[in-house]
């Protein structure tokens, strides 16, 4: 498969009043192959959205270059041709005309892309069906739930049948069921041959969907490759895994004060508390922390292979959102 | 020229317009109030009749048309910024100027409605005895003036892409056009240094043509005939469209450079 996107030393700075320029994207380089789902991972402020905006021609880079479908993203002579072959889905509530119905929104954007009228009407129906909004097609968007709006965002981004689709945190703020349906939709779109660039900070989503990815932190690429390769990048690290009956909040305070410990995560699994963390200096001894966790009812304690999330936290330096 | 985008902008503006009840304010209430003020000022507290009052009514009509055009053009891009639809529009592979042109055409239509509401108010409520010398010509000059006002609105909406303070600037810009176009007071009464500004505005010539068509006796702007008025108005409107196009190209570039497309 050929490279459909080529990014070289792409940098974007923003002027901030009475402050030094803020570097949102700092000399990143990567390639995306035709038909793959490529992930841009990173915490908030890592430069994911800025990268998407540059690659979708909505923002000029400060330096560096990028080619999408063979077009230079800054070439004004060809930018309109490129725009007709790509599209962007942004997460969140904005980006639609609330006082227009779902169908009117799709027709409006189809007209901007110059889709022939007969084709437009058929495609709008197909897209509404694809995103499960056929029954709501003539309802104003202002009466839509967040999940419905997000599905309409996806339909809007497909009106021009783009070859490259940028999905900027498409499942942010959605409930698990809707998120799953959107992930299924993304997989279907990929199966239909579209190249998809997905930004997310949900690791399970990246693991489930992405063929390859880059991890961004403070505007720089700190990791790249397949899920397996990224995990390999932190293979020198084992992760302590402790399952407790009660919330080990007090024990976590002890861990947080230890500068050698990184990537602390606790989540509830099947009514129990699953805590994971790793050590900067090498393989940790899980039993060194047994005492601190004992009051919370330890069920299991041991070492695990790092997950993508562990690798992500290690690579991004445990940046919190 | 992208007719599909122009039509899309027109339709979208029409749907948004009627979906938002506040359209009544610039389209009905404002012209109504303006007409009352103009008529009472012009009549000087005496009987409401004669060419002076007719001139006031014409002025009120232009005020209504301009209010509509300015309201539409200033809110157009600001609305898209707030709504988050500016970026998808910008990224759609069509020049935004075409969408704005479609919206301006819609505001033309509404502006015409405003003007005729003003004339109807003057006739029905105040009994001004509004009699037109050449009704068909008058209608054409009103249409031309409105189109000309819309081209000024188009330029303004292009410039508003660069700013987040569209509403504030629109308020500031509302009155100068009333003065410079001769809608409020004859241009001949303005200080000499203001005249060049009036002469480069298409609507000034449109207003002059309207007065020619409506008033039994009228001394044309710079002594021009109605035919010259129409020609100059159309020429200046075309120039305004061309300027708007290039301003929009420049503004789009600046938006991409500054990264301000989503700021509001």
Tell me the layout of helices and strands.
The complex is a heterodimer of chains A (321) and B (264).
Chain A: E1 3-16, E2 19-33, E3 37-41, H1 48-55, E4 63-68, E5 71-72, H2 79-83, E6 86-90, H3 102-112, H4 117-130, H5 146-157, E7 164-168, H6 176-191, E8 195-200, H7 203-209, E9 212-217, E10 220-225, H8 227-232, E11 239-244, H9 249-256, E12 261-269, E13 272-279, H10 290-293, E14 298-304, H11 308-315
Parallel strand pairs in A: 3-8, 3-9, 6-7, 7-8
Antiparallel strand pairs in A: 1-2, 1-4, 4-5, 9-10, 11-13, 11-14, 12-13
Helix pairs in contact in A: 3-4
Chain B: H1 3-19, H2 24-43, H3 50-83, H4 86-90, H5 96-124, H6 135-159, H7 166-180, H8 195-199, H9 202-214, H10 226-258
Write a structural description.
- The complex is a heterodimer of chains A (321) and B (264).
- Chain A is of the alpha/beta class.
- Chain A contains eleven helices and 14 strands.
- In chain A, strand 7, helix 6 (176-191) and strand 8 (195-200) form a beta-alpha-beta unit.
- Chain A is globular and about 70 Å long.
- The two termini of chain A are 36 Å apart.
- Chain B is mainly alpha-helical and 264 residues long.
- In chain B, helix 3 (50-83) packs antiparallel against helix 5, helix 6 packs antiparallel against helix 9 and helix 9 runs antiparallel to helix 10.
- The two termini of chain B are 29 Å apart.
- The mean pLDDT of chain B is 81.
- Chain A binds chain B through residues 12, 14-15, 50, 53, 56-60, 76, 80-81, 83-84, 86-88, 90, 92-100, 104, 107-109, 111-114, 140, 156, 160, and chain B through 2, 4-5, 7-8, 11-12, 15-16, 19-20, 83-85, 87-95, 99, 253, 256-259, 261.
